[in-house]
Amino acid sequence: MSLGNSELILNPDGSIYHLNLLPEDIATTIITVGDPDRVSSVSKYFDSIEVKKQKREFRTHTGHLKGKRITVLSTGIGTDNIDIVLNELDALANIDLETRKVKSNKIQLSFIRIGTSGSIQPNIPVDSFLMSASAIGLDGLLHFYESGQCTNDDLEKKFDEFLGWSSHKIHPYAVDCDKTLGDVFTSNRIRFGITCTNSGFYGPQGRSLRLSPKIVDFNERLAAFTYQNQRITNLEMETAGIYGLAKMHGHRAVSLNAILANRATGEFSKAGGKTVDDLIKYTLERLVSSDLIS
Ligand SMILES: O=P(O)(O)O[C@H]1O[C@H](CO)[C@@H](O)[C@H]1O
Ligand SMILES: O=c1cc[nH]c(=O)[nH]1
């Protein structure tokens, strides 16, 4: 079946609608960052850069580092953008843009998010690195897809039972990271936890400037949840969407967080730039020494 013009949308030069990319522009290893300015903070460490493209907040650089081809792409903020980025990157890999048909031999992509995040546990300090072993999405993105076997239904259920937030119209979905890809970044420099992804930075992360929150003890309630000796450790805005859409498409994903805020102690990092740069260097070092990445 050929995909119609209003479903698979291409620009006049044949590139995919929002990302403005052609199939040959991307590597199978893709680092996602939120901030477009963080793209060059990653690609400045490449030995060479062959592609530099941008449309809206989606900036892409593809290059080589120690023989590995790597793409770094900015997603902007939020799982609404993740829906665009993951669907369009998969289309570049697995749909023939000329015939508009899904290819029979699928390519598996590896997504590594390098993002910032706020801890909700007092013992996860600012400037630490944290891998999201699992992610719980409160944003709703996955509810629009047939997610099949991709979700961690037990975690979802226990979370729902503990918090009882369906009365607030909050319906969680939970997805685990790709264990094999996660192993590449596992070391004593990195902590692990359950990341909570939500649809905003203020109310949806328990912040209140002038507006009153509906759930007053939002972060404290999240922080009190335990599942198989793990806790919800941090809040951000993309990971659960990336994990869900990657898994449903048959790709791998892992999310690495630079903890810039500690919401339990009220601290914010004074060295955020350095912490993010350290996480970028850590990620690239682990990537180039891994056999999983070609
Ligand atoms: O630093 P990035 O990757 O953008 O990630 C975090 O920072 C943004 C909010 O400030 C959200 O996108 C959140 O997920
Ligand atoms: O508290 C924080 C810090 C960074 N990014 C977030 O989404 N939340």
UniProtKB/TrEMBL annotation:
Tell me the lineage of the source organism: Bacteria, Pseudomonadati, Bacteroidota, Flavobacteriia, Flavobacteriales
- Name the record gives this protein: Uridine phosphorylase
* EC number of this enzyme: 2.4.2.3
* GO CC, any one term: cytosol
Biological process terms from the Gene Ontology for this record are:
purine nucleoside catabolic process
Which reaction equations make up its catalytic activity?
uridine + phosphate = alpha-D-ribose 1-phosphate + uracil
What organism does the UniProt record list as the source?
A: Flagellimonas olearia
Q: Residue ranges of the Nucleoside phosphorylase domain? A: 29-266
Q: Which PANTHER family match?
A: FI09636P-RELATED (PTHR43691:SF11), URIDINE PHOSPHORYLASE (PTHR43691)
Q: Name one Pfam family in it.
A: PNP_UDP_1
Single GO term (MF): purine-nucleoside phosphorylase activity
